[in-house]
Amino acid sequence: MSFETISVIGLGYIGLPTAAMFASCKKKVIGVDVNQHAVDTINKGEIHIVEPDLDMLVHEAVSEGFLRATTMPEPADAFLIAVPTPFLSIENEGDIPNPDLKYIESAAKAIAPVLKKGDLVILESTSPVGATEQMAEWLAQERTDLTFPQTSGENSDIRIAHCPERVLPGHVVRELVENDRVIGGLTNKCSKAAVELYKCFVKGDCVITNARTAEMAKLTENSCRDVQIAFANELSMICDKLDIDVWELISLANRHPRINILQPGPGVGGHCIAVDPWFIVSKTPEHAKLIHTARKVNDAKPEWVINKVKLAIADFLQTNPNKNATDITIGCFGLAFKPDIDDLRESPSLFIANSIAKSHPATVLFVEPNIKILPESVAVNSRLTEFHKAIQDTDIAVLLVDHSIFKENFVIPKSTIVIDTKGIWKNLPVR
Ligand code: SAJ
Question: Of 141, 175, 204, which one is at a domain's C-terminal end?
C-alpha cells in the first residue's frame, strides 16, 4: 500500500502541523479548510495560528510544492479528519453537556464524493466512544457504490481508523514525531494501513487497538489529568481554610516516591481537558461519578478566586477607611489558559479578569504579555497594560497565569494585596 497523496481536513492546531509533517516526508498534501483566510494564509507559506517551529515547516512545505490548501476536498489516497469536537450548549445549569459531532459529519460528507476504492479515512479529532463507527456510517450512506468495514470487514473498499491526536500545544511539532500513537482501526487491515501512513514521520510506537478503545484512550488521558488537577484545586481550597501553604504542602507530599500531585490554579482551561471528560460523563453518567465531580471542582475554581478578590476589596476598604471602591486599582496578571501561550480560548483567567472588571467600578488593568489587543468581548473598563507599569499601579494584584515573565525579578509595593493562584509570588521582594 502506498500513500502518495494525503488530504488533511481541518487546518487548525492539529491538522496544519500534521499536514506539514506529511509534506516534510515529500508526500503530496492537500489541506482542506472551510476558512478561506486560513487557506489563503497557508498558500502564501504563512500560518494563522501560534505554534513554535510551525511557521518554518509550513513555509518549506508550501514553497517546495508539497503542501497546498483549498476549501474543496480533492481525491487523495488517505484522508485525515482533524476538525473540532465541541459540546452542545446546555439548557439548564447542572445539565451534562453532550458532544457535538456536526463538524465530523460535515467533513465526512464533504470527502465522500471524492473517495475511491482503496482509500484510508482516519478520524483524529478527540471523539466520544462510537464516533468513528458513526463517521463510517455517514460515509456509507453517501457512497452506496463502495463497501465499508462495518459491513464488509477486511474486504472493504474503504479503510477506517481512529488515531487520536495527543500533542501538547506549544510542543506540537516535537510531540507529533516523538509521541507514541494509538491506532484503532475498524478492522485489523484498517489499523495496519494507518500504521503505515503514520510511520512516515512518527518515531514513537504505533500501537494497534480497536476504534472504541482508541477513542476511550484519548478521553481517559485528558480525564485523568482533569481529575488530578481537581485534586490539587480541592487541596488549595482546603489549605486556604486551614492556613496552610498548599504549594509547600504539595512539594513535601511529592517527595514521597509514589506521589506526584499536580499544581492548583485558577481553574482548568483550553479546549481539551475541560471538554473531553464530559464525553465520558454524558455516555455513562451513572458510572462516571469521580470524573463528573472533578469537572465540577475545576469549573467552580474561578468563582472561588473571584470571591477571594471580593474579600480583598473589603479588606482594603477596612484598612483604608478614607477610600471607596472607585479608588481601588485591580491588576489581573495573565489571561491565557496556560503559561507562555497567547491562546485565550476557554481561559478561566480571562473569565476571572472579565468578571472582576464587570463588577468593579474603576479601571481594571489586564496584563497579558503574549497578546497585543484585548478581545472585543471584555468589559469596557478593562485596559491592556504592560506588566511592570501595572504592578506599580495596582492595589490588588491577582496572579492568574504563571507566565515566565511574571517569575523574573521585580519589586512589588508593600501595600499591594496579592492573590496568587499559581504560587509564584510567595516570596516577592517588597518596597
Ligand atoms: N493545569 C493546572 N495544573 C496543572 C497542569 C495544568 O491547573 O498542574 C491547567 C492549565 O493551566 C490549563 C489546563 O490545566 O488551564 C490544561 O492544560 P494542560 O497543559 O494540562 O493541557 P492542554 O489542554 O494544553 O493539552 C492536553 C494534553 N493532555 C494531557 O496532557 C493528558 C495534550 O497531550 C493533549 O493532546 C491535549 O490536551 C488535547 O489536544 O487533547
Answer: 204
Residues 146 and 197 in one domain: yes
Range of the domain at 416: 211-431
* 178 and 224 within one domain: no
The per-residue pLDDT for range 279-306, each reduced to its tens digit, is 999 999 999 999 999 999 999 999 999 9
Query: How many domains, the chain?
Result: 2
Ligand 1 within 6 A of CB of 401: no
Quick: pLDDT tens for 333-348: 999 999 988 889 899 9
Other Cβ atoms within 10 Å of 55 Cβ, number: 15
Instruction: Please tell me the pTM assigned to this model.
Output: 0.95
Which one of 206, 272, 301, 338 is the catalytic residue? 272
Active-site annotation holder among 27, 189, 206, 218: 218
Q: Is the CB of 179 under 6 A from ligand 1?
A: no
Does 272 participate in catalysis according to the annotation?
Answer: yes
Q: Burial, 145: exposed, middle or buried (Cβ in 10 Å; 0-12, 13-18, 19+)?
A: exposed
Q: Is 221 in the pocket of ligand 1 (CB under 6 A)?
A: yes
User: Positive or negative CA dihedral for 271, 276, 277, 281?
Assistant: positive
- Residue 356's alpha-carbon distances to 11, 380, 385, 413, in angstroms, are 35, 12, 16, 21
Q: Tell me: do 170 and 285 sit in the same domain.
A: no
Is 222 touching ligand 1 by the criterion CB < 6 Å? Answer: yes
